[in-house]
Amino acid sequence: MLELYRVMIRIRAFENEAIELAKANITRAAVHTYNGEEAIAVGVCAHLSNKDYITSTHRGHGHCIAKGADLRRMFAELMGRETGYCKGKGGSMHIADLATGNLGANGIVGGGIPMAMGAGLGQQVAHEPNLTVSFFGDGASNEGSFHEALNMASIWNLPVVFICENNKFGISTSTEKSMNIERISDRAKAYGIKGLTVDGNDLVDVYQTFAEIKEEVLAGKGPVLLEMDTYRMSGHYFGDSENYRNREDVEKWKDKDPIVRCEQRLVKVHGVSEEALKAIQKEEEKMVLAASEQAKLDPEPAVEDIMNDLYDPTFEEIEWKIFSKG
Predict the structure, then answer these.
(1) Spatial separation of the C-alpha atoms in residues 279 and 277, rounded to whole Å
(2) Residue 169 main-chain phi, psi, to 5 deg
């Protein structure tokens, strides 16, 4: 649990530094922070290996870090440096790390959901004992891609877990105004698959629930829709005025901060000292700041490289075969 706590602290420190970089106009695109939702990425990715895939969202830094991404390369991507994961060409919303099974963050709302369905199909066809997890927000659950992907995954019984991080707002539109259901997980019934709602700010609940779901999915019981109930502590993006949110609600959710709740459990239940927790915070913050400073020194992409990476150079070598699911 201490190790999972450490990763949550790492994510929070990364996001806080990303905000500072945005303030200084060092980042090259919009920055959407994951503050307040750390328990979801950490609790889920703790069960995944590099051979398990994830697809992410525009708010994807937490998923990347929980899946094992290199902090310096992430910062370099935010700053538009050639040492970034996408050579500085993608920015904050497009970090991908195939080595850790991260198929990429996605600036298109709901764009990663059908990608996850396709990855799950690939795993099934190859008879691989792994699964794919798709992270997306409540807004994406109103997109056609969500319904199409869940339907196909259900028909083909694919090893995919669809995780909706319900932080109550699709940009500035409340879920109370954008859908006429109480729980997004209820939508699983329409496709004949399992749907559950979990306290996404409780690390233990997320960790234990996903452990059970992973076992079921790998046993061939079909895809699952998990709704993680959470709240973003920051605005939709850095610079958001947040004039659409009730300040009392924001303060109420601060009391449910997943990191604070984890700290309370570690101290009261497991006897960990507050000094030990502070030491972890300092270690992680120091490591994050060092990665940021290193990335600042990295070069920007060369003009000569602008036309590269548009197409797969091995495209002409691909051997096309008739698809057969059996």
Answers:
(1) 5
(2) -140, 130
- What tokens appear for 168 in the block? 């109550």
Which two three-digit tokens encode residue 312?
A: 């797969």
Residue 260, both tokens: 């604070």
- Cα gap 167→178, rounded to integer Å: 13
pLDDT tens digit sequence for 199-242: 999 999 999 999 999 999 999 999 999 999 999 998 888 888 88
| Tens of pLDDT, residues 149-184 | 999 999 999 999 999 999 999 888 888 889 999 999
- 219: burial class by Cβ within 10 Å (0-12, 13-18, 19+)? exposed
169-170/173-174 β-pairing:
antiparallel
Tokens of 100: 């850790």
CA dist., res. 189 & res. 203, Å (int): 26
